[in-house]
Structures are given as structure tokens and as C-alpha cells.
Amino acid sequence: MSPKCFIDQVATEEIMSRVARMCAECYDEFSEGDHIYYDMQSYRYLCHNCYEEAAAGLNEECEVAEDDSVGSLFA
Asked: Among 9, 15, 49, 57, which is 20 to 30 Å from 75 by CA?
């Protein structure tokens, strides 16, 4: 995964008091010292599990990777 898609940070009291106390995807609460990930495309903080799921669906340009095995309506 390209480092430009996410910023890996450690949850600090400052981050949690000013920006986010919970994951924007699953709403699990962060604890001080947790590794959290800032999504540069969607401007949100994610927990490790949600980060892995989001990163798996992106290509190197931080765009949603298309699955060619799934046909489209107009294909």
C-alpha cells in the first residue's frame, strides 16, 4: 500500500481530545497508545482492522481497485 493513502499515528490524548475518539468506520473507541490510521482520501481516522480492510480495496493511486471478475451493467 502506498504511504500516501494513510498516515500511521499513535493515539495520543491530544488527538483524541481534538480530533477523534473512535474509528470512523466501526465506531470502536481508541485508547491512548493504539495505532490509528488517518485516511488521506476520506479525511478520517481508522482503527487497525478497518485500515486493513480499506487498504486492501485500494490501488497504488489510492483509488478503489476495480474487480474485473464482476461484470458491469454495460459490459
From this structure: 57
CA 55 – CA 52 distance, rounded (Å) = 5
Mode of pairing for the β-strands spanning 44-46 and 6-10: unpaired
Q: How far apart are CA 61 and CA 65, in angstroms?
A: 9
Answer yes or no: is pLDDT of 2 > 90: no
Question: CA-to-CA distance for 2 and 30, rounded, in angstroms?
Answer: 24
pLDDT-derived band at 60, boundaries 50, 70, 90: confident
Q: Rounded to whole angstroms, how far apart are CA atoms 10 and 2?
A: 19
**3 state SS of 22:** strand
